Amino acid sequence: MSPDRLIYMANQIGKFFQSQGHGKAVPGIADHIKKFWDPRMKRAIFAHLDGGGAGLEPDVREALISLKQTTTLPAAP
Predict the structure, then answer these.
(1) Which residues of 2-21 are buried (b: 16+ CB within 10 A; e: fewer)?
(2) What phi, psi does 6 have (nearest 5°)?
(3) Which of 7, 10, 52, 58 sits at 20 to 30 Å (Cα–Cα) from 17?
(4) d(Cα 33, Cα 14) in Å, to the nearest integer?
(5) Cα 56 from Cα 14, distance rounded (Å)
(6) For 17, what's the count of Cα atoms within 13 Å in the CB-facing half-sphere?
(7) pTM of the model
(8) Distance of CA 62 to CAs 75, 76, 77, Å?
(9) What span, in angstroms and rounded, lies between the C-alpha atoms of 18 and 30?
């Protein structure tokens, strides 16, 4: 999946949680991505984040940073 598509999807998740306020949005975004994105998607969005994370909304970026710190992904096939 292209980074642009993943950025779009992550930002859409962020928009959904935005109305809950920052304190609930960031963990909500992280939890959603943790539960519903497969390891390849997470690996790709984490790589994008490592490359600067262009295009990611602030709450999404914060959620991905916290998720990356607590996630162990299986080795890439």
Answers:
(1) eeeebbebbbebbeebbeee
(2) -65, -40
(3) 52
(4) 10
(5) 9
(6) 23
(7) 0.93
(8) 24, 24, 28
(9) 13
Amino acid at 67: L
Place of tokens 């490359």: 51
Q: Under a CB-based contact definition with an 8 Å cutoff, are residues 27 and 64 in contact? A: no
Alpha helices in 1-73 (DSSP H): 3-18, 22-36, 39-50, 58-70
Alpha-carbon 29 to chain mean position: 7
For 10-29, what is each residue's pLDDT tens digit? 999 999 999 999 999 999 99
Give residue-wise pLDDT tens across range 30-66: 999 999 999 999 999 999 999 999 999 999 999 999 9
**What is the DSSP secondary structure assignment for residue 53, as one 8-state letter?**
-
